[in-house]
Amino acid sequence: VASVALLGASAHAADKMTVGFSQIGSESGWRAAETSVTKLDAKKLGVDLKFSDAQQKQENQIKAVRSFIAQGVDAIFMAPVVATGWDPVLKEAKEANIPVILLDRTIDTQDPSLYLTAVGSDTVHEGAVAGDWLVKTAAGKACNVVEIEGTVGSSPATNRKKGFADALAGHDNVKVIRSQTGDFVRAKGKEVMESFLKAENGGKAICAVYAHNDDMAVGAIQAIKDAGLKPGKDILVVSIDGVPDIFKAQMAGESNASVELTPDMAGPAFAALAAFKKDGTKPPHFIQTESKLLLPDTAKAEYEKKKDLGY
Ligand code: GYE
Known about the structure:
GO terms for molecular function: carbohydrate binding. The protein is an alpha/beta fold.
C-alpha cells in the first residue's frame, strides 16, 4: 500500500483526491479481492474512490470513464475487460488532463501516452511458469493437456495461452489437445471441463488441465470428481491467481500448482499517482508485480495469509 505520508504530501490538506475506478465485474474470487483491497487502500489513504462495476461489458466501462471525466476526477483507474477499442475514450481523458492507470489487464494501442502506467503481472510469464511446471512434472512422459481459457480478447487470456504454449514448445510429450474459454468464471470452468471429459471418453486420456484462473480450476476439479476421477492424481490441475479456494484444494490433494497474482494492484497505482501529482514524477510505463509458483507444501500458510483479504 502506498504510504499515507506520500499521498498526504500531494493532496492539499483540505481537498481529498478523487479517483474513479472502472472495475470489470465480479467474475472471479481474485477480482472480488482486488475490489476490496482497492477500496481498503483508498480508505487508508483518504482517497475518495468512485467505484463502477461494468458487469463484464466494455461499453459500460467506456460510459463509466466518460462519467468520471464529466465529474472532473483527479485520476482514473481502469481494469480493461478486453484489450482493444480504448483509444477514443482514453483520448478524451487525456484531453481533460486526467491521468489513467490500468490495473491488472493491458490494452493494445499505438499511443503509449494514453495512460500513465499499467500495474500488473507479466501474464505471458505466468503462463510460462505454469507450462514449465507441467513439463517438469511430466518428466518426459506423454501428457495430454486440456486448457480452459479466460475471457476472449482479454490480455490475460491471450498471454497466458501464449506463455504456456511457449513453455511446451520443444517438449512434444506434453500436448494441448483441447482448448475452450470458460470466461474466468467457476461455473463455466466446470461446464467446459465436463464437455472435455465427455469428448475424451470420460477423461482417461487426459493427463492435466491448465486453467487460466483458479476459479475455473475449482470448477474443473468438481467436474473431474463428478466423472469419478481424482483431480490432482488422475488429472493434474494447474492454474493461476493463488486464491484461498485453490489452497484449500491443494490441501485436499486436488490441485497441484498455482501461480500467485497479488490482488493489490491499487497500492502501487496510488503510490505512482501520488508521486506524479506531487512533482510530475513519471512512473515506469509498466509496474510489474511478482508471479510465484505456489505448490501444495505451502498451501496451508498461503491460505492463512489470504483468507481474510476479501476473496
Ligand atoms: O487472473 C482472473 C480475473 O485480469 C489478471 O482476471 C486478471 C484476471 C485474473 O478474473 O481471475
